[in-house]
Each structure stands twice: as structure tokens, then as C-alpha cells.
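Quick check before the chapter quiz. The format below is the same one you will see on the exam, so make sure you can read both the input and the output lines.
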Amino acid sequence: MDGLNEPIPTITTDYEAFEFVARKLLEQNEKSMNGAEDCVYRGFRGSEIDEALSYAKVVVDDNLGEIEYLDSDDDEYSQRFDEYLYNLGFSLKCAAGWLIDDNKYASDLEARMADDSSVAETIINSNPAWLNGFDDGSAFELLRVLQFIHDRRDTSDWAKKFEMLKPYFDENRTSPSTMSCISVIPWRTIKVRSNPIPKAKPV
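Here is the expected output.
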């Protein structure tokens, strides 16, 4: 996808982080998913997952020219599926994923929430001008909300949800002054992130 490798701009405020993430999610207009169709920091388009499924099912006997269809429980099916996505490479990022530098991303960050210590440390190190080695709570509360929008809301609702968040920033737009009171997104119901495709290669 065009722009996937766009470096993170120098972010200094929560609002700048919000604007960057919202812009990138609206541009990609699709959830970042793994092969199990669970949301991940680095993932694939639904069409790419469908292509991988189709590729994995078909085995052609080079000697006989016959086509065999593998069952989804077959080990070769899984290997071929992973192989296709591995060779394809990541094409999408989730909300917090856009704030993780490509050089600092690791697959073991998957299945963890954005405020998990290892993910939080990676986001902080990726945005030193913004978080300066620590977070007072507002930044990761904002990220939980953005993650919920990406993971649990239809893409057709994203623009509206982002607009609903803007009034929660203070007059200088430096922090979400009443973010903890947001009723638009029940972020506490966010489920734990799932595991990534084991062999998927980073950008």
C-alpha cells in the first residue's frame, strides 16, 4: 500500500498523534488483520488473505497435471498459507501500529494491548519528542480509544468517530482533557489482541 513505509512525523502532542493516526487509518480504509482475521499492529488486507486461502488450497501434481484440494486442517495447507503471506509482506497497520517505528517493530508485540509494557516502551521509543520517555496516562488512554475504533468499529464509521473525539482535547489541543469521561467509545471492553502470522515478515 502506498504510504505504508511513511516515517512517523515528529509528534509533540496527543492531538498531533491523533491527527496522524486518524489520517492514516482513513487513507487505508481497512482493518489491519492477520490470517485468522484478528486485528494486529502489522497485517494484511482482506483481499490478500483471500488470495492466500485460495493459494493454499490448490496443489498441482507436476507429473500428472492433476489438481488436489487440501483441507484447511492439513499441515501443508497451513504452510502454504503462511508462505504466501510471508512472501507478500505487510500492507496495513492498526491505530497504534502507525505509531510504532518499522525498525522497532517485532512480531512478539502482537497479542498485547497498546498499554502493555513492551508495546508502550516501543511506542515511547518511536516517539521521543512526544512521550519523552514516559506517559502521564492521557496518551495511552487516547491510544486505547483509537485501537477500539480500528478493532471494533466498521470502517464506514471511522470518520464520524474521529470527529466525535476532537472536542475532548483542550483548547490548545495538547491533551485530551476529559478523555477518561468519553462515552462515545466503551474502550474497557476491548479484547486482548490475537497472535500474529508466525512467519509474516516486517516491513
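If your answer matched, good. Residues 178-192, 194-203 have pLDDT under 50 and may be disordered.
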